[in-house]
Please model this.
Amino acid sequence: MAPPSLPCGASFSPEDAELITVYLNRKIAGSPLPAPTAHYVHDADVYAAEPAALVAGLLAASAKNGGGSEEWYFFTSVKAKSSHDTRRCRTVAGGAGTWHSEKGRRDVLDRDEVVGYRQVFTFEPRNLF
Model:
């Protein structure tokens, strides 16, 4: 069954505050995500596979910067390096690569109130040489 489509001319390109206040809050509460946009937000373990394998077969959203690029949105759990450590493990697929932080986290505001944080990561494949 094909996912419902957005109205003609519409695209799924949520603002950061909307991702938190609408989608993440509903997910935490166990409520369904708004249709048809629910087909653009996926549950996945982003540490289980390289990005190309992770997004294979999933609907992409239009990137906010335009230019025909795509973005994917995921709910995932953060993994600690060990049970007694506060540092996060960012290794992917048994060592195929690592997620690297690009910049420090940035506040996400909704009506001048901090509702969460945005952190940008890029995937760097493991150098085999």
Remarks:
- The CA atoms of residues 101 and 121 lie 5 Å apart.
- The chain has two helices and nine strands.
- The longest strand covers residues 113-118.
